[in-house]
Amino acid sequence: MRSVFTRRFDLDGNELSRLLKIALFGKIVPIGNLRGGPGARCLAVLALLHYMGYPLYWINARYGHRLNMFRRLMTKMRRR
């Protein structure tokens, strides 16, 4: 029998699909805090952060001192 929790007591499995199921349920049956559910943009940002967050964090931790050039370039582009 497979455990539902990991060793750190996090829920194991497909987190994003579970959240999508709960969000769709909240759209169909508006009960309690799920009333209306999250929007499509919120779910897209969550999916992007979920799947790309760890590799981006790893790159930043390993090569952060070399990324300052890109950070300065991005701040210049935002000011325009």
Structure notes:
With 80 residues, the chain is mainly α. It has one domain (15-79). Helix content is 62%, strand content 0%. It contains 3 helices and no strands. It has helices at residues 15-28, 40-63, 68-79. The longest helix is centred in the middle third of the chain and has 24 residues, at 40-63. The protein is flat and about 50 Å long.
Which helices and strands, and how do they pair?
Layout: H1 15-28, H2 40-63, H3 68-79
Helical stretch tally: 3
Share of helix among residues?
Answer: 55-70%
**Secondary-structure element sequence?**
HHH
- The separation of the N and C termini measures 57 Å
- Share of β-strand residues: under 5%
Q: Spans of 5+ residues with little confidence (pLDDT < 50)?
A: none
For the biggest sheet, the summary is: none
Number of strands: 0
Radius of gyration: 18 Å
Query: What's the number of structural domains?
Result: 1
Which structural class is indicated by helix and strand composition?
mainly alpha
Overall mean confidence score, pLDDT: 79
Approximate shape: flat
State the gist of this model.
With 80 residues, the protein is mostly helical.
For this entry, give a set of tags.
single chain; about 80 residues; mainly alpha
